[in-house]
Amino acid sequence: MQEVLTAKHFYNANTCGVISESGFTNQAYQLAKPNFIYLLTSNEFFNLQDKNELVSESIDKLSQVSFNYDIIKSYENLKQRIRQTPTWEQLDKSLRYQIKREYGNYLVFLKKIGHSKANSKPTNDQLKLEYKRIRSIVGKTLTANDIKKHTTLPYNSFHAYPLTKLQKECGDRPNIERGITKEQLIAEYLILAKKLGRNPTSVDLDNHGVYKYSYYVPHRWKNFSAFLKDANIPESEVTKRRYSDTQTVLMYCLIEQLIRIKENNFEKEINSTVLKKLKYNDKVLFSRGAIANKFDNLDNLLTDKKYNDIRQRIQQLVADIEKNSSR
Prior knowledge:
Blueprint: H1 2-10, E1 16-20, H2 26-32, E2 37-41, H3 42-46, H4 51-62, H5 69-82, H6 93-103, H7 106-112, H8 124-138, H9 144-150, H10 163-169, H11 182-196, H12 202-208, H13 213-216, H14 224-230, H15 237-240, H16 245-263, H17 272-276, E3 279-280, E4 283-284, H18 288-295, H19 298-302, H20 305-326
Parallel strand pairs: 1-2
Antiparallel strand pairs: 3-4
């Protein structure tokens, strides 16, 4: 019943049906009625003549079950909104009062509507399957916020399963794993440099390194130059290239404006993922390392006064050009 109800919400269907070889429990009827689920045995189904008979047959059965529709509807609306089985504290005072008056206590109510297993702890295999399902939706290594936003299981179920362990066992590389020393990071960087025949870039680390760029900067080092200096690694010519504060902001603002014009989306977020996809002669045009060298991270750049000043000037310039072109 729970699987059918989930499918009903997923496909945005108005009604659905369940056919059983052995009949249904009272709890199944309790859950079916407020959610418009038709319940029939296999014999009843094969004896039906048309759709109208299906509806009337199912409604006749459901009408024999007594329940409080308003209570169940309020409960289901809350459950759908918070994406997990509500705790007693999450129910509002009015709903708690109605449940106590009608059913005695919350556990009895859950059993009546077929949610008796709602509080059972999912197995590790179930958590892995849920992680992989959400990853297929999000399309990247999941964060705790990704899981909280998309999971159909109680979010508390994941607390006993360390996220980095779950990521690894599902074939992902964690963004940050505790306990990794600077010496380990330097050693892995040197191994990758030997394989590539050059100093790896942030993109190389993300794509091929044992540890991603985020392990190095800003988790362990303020910027990438500080890492290279600490590791006694000579900087390549590309790494030595420097932009001033103003040049860094100007480059970012120009890229931001061009992408937003091209995609006609002036709310689009221009983050490091977008930047590393921009290439010239098969090299990253403007890396997050350039930002880190002057501002440590993108958030600092976006809150700097230069960013607002240059961004406004570029927008005004674009507006003036469009105005002159229309003439």
